[in-house]
Amino acid sequence: MKGTRYSTSRQKACQPCSTAKTKCDRKPGCCTRCALRGISCSYPPILPSGDSSRDIGDNTSDNAEASLYTSFSDTSVLSAPGLEPKISAGADSQGLASQSLTTQSSTFGLVQATGSTSPTNTSSTTFAASHTPDESVPNITSCPPRNSEVLNFSSLELFSPINVDGISNRWLNTLIPVPGQKVKEYPASISAFIYRLLKSYATVAVRGRGVPPFIHASQISATSIRQPLSTCFSLVRICESPLPGSEGVAADVLHREMNNICEEQATYDDVTMLAAFQAYLIYSMVLFFRLGQISSPFLRQAMMNLQELACSSSRGGLMCTAERQRVRPRWEAWIVAESKRRSLFTMYLFDSVLSTQDGLQTFLGTELEGLPASADKSLWRAHTRRDWETAYNLYLADWSEQGFRIDELWPIPAGLDETGLLERRKRVDRWLENVDEFGTMLYAVTSCTHGG
Question: What's this model's pTM, rounded to 2 decimal places?
């Protein structure tokens, strides 16, 4: 039999790009597309002269689909140590997470390959297939680097300094008067400010360019991410550019996954419960800000479920035992406690947005009194245990008696004398020295609302 015209393959693209029939920029080490998706960038081997080299670059559509499905259905993709992101000390939390989320593209690839938009549902095939995530992330020059730091989130020593049952009952405040309630009247400009900030949190997740500032970078690393968050960051991508009239289909997909979280919450451990709470919060904000579910009855029920999830997560502890003793806790315990507190504060702000939308009064979250305010940026952004421990030692030196509490940003207590007022302002100034963008947002909202 006559040999093929070419004894070697003329294929220029890497194997994954060739299989997907997309353009490959052939960057040394790893092309941009493979780096974004967190997959192995390899080139086809040179074939013997008797084989058909043209078959490599001209696979049938059936083979391409089978290859894509096999690639994305391999569960080791999300857990491979080589895909774990490297956290940069100088980057902000959204920038940190934009690299981490490359590991989530594998899950979304399964959506594209199979037409499934939910782990528990296989409908809406056409809709999911028509919403492909944007791969044009700038400045990706290599495959995701390894991170040698492995975190152990077992045996966390946490406790709750507040009555967490008040969190799950918050929705009743607008219906049944509760003793000690304090009405919180946001100026119109602050209501608009909160609306825009929370909308940006939802958009960050939907576009896949980062994570909201209430999710720690370690929570989305390949070795630490929990299933509710992993699924969340994949599903919300279908809401980036929905086709006209398809918003309802996208909302149904999120509804099913939200119901799935509520049904399975009894099986979650503390860290997975936190991830479920955060995922449910993101779903709710995406429904409201991106899909126009403003007056949806489902969203009202979702807020009740969200507050119940927040309560369940808070029962696992909102502070480290070491924080109460003014000593340094384990990094893992602190990450979970701080992430819970930030998620709670965000949920309360979102609740106020919904209440304002419905023309209802909003109330001060007095059930949160005593919780620490958001932590220093040096602690939140630390990318190694050693850096975090060094930063925490400095924090203890600055706050040797008691850490800064969220209620110190609330209205000035009646009867506070001049000395007490000066001390309060000094503590606020000291806290502001090291806050990140999340703390700045909290201060802007509380200062413009309550003064002080």
Answer: 0.70
